[in-house]
Amino acid sequence: MSHLPVQPIPAESDLGAVFDAHLTAEFIAKDVEATMATMAETPYLTHVPVLTGGYGRDQVREFYSRFFIGHWPADTSITPISRTIGQGRVVDEFILRFTHDREMPAILPGVKPTGRSVEIPHVVIMGIADGKVSYEHIYWDQASLLVQIGLIERTGLPVSGAEQAARLRDPVLPSNQLIPISSP
Question: For residue 63, is it within any domain?
Answer without folding.
Answer: yes
